Amino acid sequence: MEEHTLAHGAYWTVKEFFTYPNEYIYWTIHIVIYPYLTGLVAGAFVLSSMYHVFGKDELRPVAKFSLVFSLALLIMAPSPLLFHLTQPQRSINIMMTPHFYSAISAFTFVYLSYMAIVVFEIWFVFRPYIVKQAQERDGIVGLMYKVMTLGSYDVSEAALHLDHKIIKILATAGIPAAGLLHGYVGFIFGSVKTVPLWKTPLMPFIFLMSAVISGVAVCIVTYIAGMAFKKHFICFVPIKSMSKVLAYFLVIAFLLEGIDIVFHAYTAEEFWHIMSELLFKRFAFKMIVVQWILGMILPFILLVLPNLTMLRSFIAASLVLMGVFTMRWDVVIGGQSMSRSFAGFLEFNLPVFSKNIEIFKEGLIPALFLLAAPFFLLYIFNKVLPVFKDIFTEQECAEAEDKMSKRLF
Amino acid sequence: MVTRRDFIKAGLLTVAGMTIPISALEIFKPEALASLVESFSKKKRWAFVVDTTKCVGCGMCAKACKLENEIPFEAEVQRTWVERYIQTKDGEVIIDSPRGARYGFTSNDPYGKELKDEEVAKEFFVPKLCNQCEKPSCVQVCPAGATYKMEDGVVLVDRSWCIGCGYCVTNCPYFARFFNPVTNTADKCTFCYHRITKGKQTACIDACAFGVRKIGYLHDPNSEVFKIVSTQRVAVLKPEYGNEPHVFYIGLDHIVK
Fold first, then answer.
1. Complex-level ipTM
2. Could you tell me if A359 lies within 8 Å of chain B, comparing CB atoms?
3. Helix A157-190 to helix A203-230 angle, to the nearest 10 degrees?
4. Proportion of chain A above pLDDT 90, given as a percent
5. Which among B81, B128, B179 has CB closest to A9?
6. Which SS3 state, helix, strand or coil, does residue A70 take?
7. In this predicted model, what pLDDT tens digit does every residue of A110-167 receive, in sequence order?
8. Per-residue DSSP letters for chain B?
9. CB B214 within 8 A of CB B224
């Protein structure tokens, strides 16, 4: 009996003033990482669609990269949820007896449909490359590419033309699907009626906009880092274009988050006295300084100042990534930090080491693993489907820059 | 040879074909749909009455519940608990429930701070338990359908099916839910379903020496619960959440959270 006396949540929660006896911070670091990773997916995919659907030609060098990267992120996106379940081996039950009134259950189906779109699109985008490899290589690698062709070796001009059409359709369908995927994550939180910080119809949109900024930012950071690692010539044109997208969406994301807080303050419902203490005292540094000033306002200024450089883009994007992660933390942990009795507070202490596996798996080390895993996956994917190859030469880069400078948007 | 067009066609058909049987499980479950739009209250429906004017905060109910339902006694989770509310003369409200009150309240010392009698304006105890809501948000959000409502209004958890996502725990306005440290799944008060269905009283009612707690059918003219709810002024906790709780309180104060 002795080992069962520690209730789930009791280890990492510190209570202050009155909270209900069963009240703990149940959604921990993994539920912070989960919307963060899902958000990166949506942002990265939108970027690749801007090339395929909206004809932003200057994004061609990053189109394949952001598409494959979004798959790597997508594969890892639900894994924080699995880490967080107390009975992960039963996760299949969601599919066995789906309960569609539950946002988590509905998310599973949205996620799987979106996954199908991304996988199909990647297959069509890389088909000529796969066919070429299947014909040229032999051995196990050759066999792998042969399997990946799915028996379709037709790379005639007519076939490729059809491919392009299909890619355009998939990329177009992918945009609302990406929006739905992340909107649903926002809905999972927004529908928790007991947490005043989450309970707003703006939640899906707040999450969606911060998803776009984090997704674009992670593409900027990873693309620059990846290209530098490969020692390729890095054309600034696609990065400049991505930086513009990032700056536009930063404004929207900031406004939405601001409106939400202003509304809570203005309507001043019964929980405002405790929420204002939480936001402006206990979470003041995290929210105002890190999330808003360092994560949104400063990167925006860095991006819109004239004569943007690659280093400035890189720094601004890194700051945005940090800001969005802090936003997820503030929303998930902050939301649960005020007791549902509106009389007390709960504080979350991230476990680092523990002999107890239940506590360890909610801790720092699995969290770092989950955050690093998509980059590792991208590294492996890049070995099979190279994403840093279809890049601008110096001459193409100059032409693209010339074209871009003549356009307003 | 399979053309790409044929392959895509076949693939889409397979995916579409596979989704139909999965969704059929849910779509053709009339009782699940009905529970959202139509209440079962017209049928036999369990309800609970708590008379807060009689509770002395001895905590025997919380103790009995732990022993009856095999929730580890030292674990800091409770199926039922008692809260103490103290309003001082300068208007401050102090609320506490040390260890869910399973050892009772023995002195006037919330959070270890002694309060003098002359400082206190009013003081009372409020026992709490799962409200067995008519529209339980825990049932609504459970992704696997492991939490379900019986026709007689009691909400139960299938421990062998719960995946442990905690969505129900965060969605309960009363925090009546927790993770059972032994089974590692969501847990809650069941109105002692194993006892009431055999004609017995719940463990907490049996343990209460002051007649604070009562259980019965809501629309049975012979039940005491029916008589109280239909003739006295009773209140429920947090009605603004729309869950329609079925634990009715006599003498509920506005400072109760």
1. 0.89
2. no
3. 130
4. 80
5. B179
6. helix
7. 999 999 999 999 999 999 999 999 999 999 999 999 999 998 899 999 999 999 999 9
8. ---HHHHHHHHHHHHHHHHHHHHHHHHT-HHHHHHHHS--TTS--EEEEEETTT-----HHHHHHHHHTT--TTSS--SSEEEEEEEETTS-EEEE-GGGGTT---SS-GGG----GGGEEEEEEEEE-----SS-HHHHH-TTS-EEE-TTS-EEE-TTT-----HHHHH-TT---EE-TTT-SEE---SSHHHHTTTPPPHHHHH-SS--EEEEETT-TTSHHHHHHHHS-EE-S-GGGS----EEEES--TT--
9. yes
Residues of chain A with Cβ-Cβ distance to B181 below 8 Å are 4-8
Q: How far apart are CA A64 and CA A218, in angstroms?
A: 15
The position carrying tokens 């009339």 is B30
Residues of chain B neighbouring A86 (CB-CB closer than 8 A) = 163-164, 166, 179, 184-185
User: Per the CB < 8 Å rule, is B7 touching A7?
Assistant: no
Contact B163 A91 (CB under 8 A): yes
pLDDT digits (tens, 9 = 90+) for A198-253: 988 999 999 999 999 999 999 999 999 999 998 889 999 999 999 999 999 999 99
Check residue A109 and give its pLDDT: 87
Q: Which amino acid is at B150?
A: M
pTM score, two decimals?
0.89
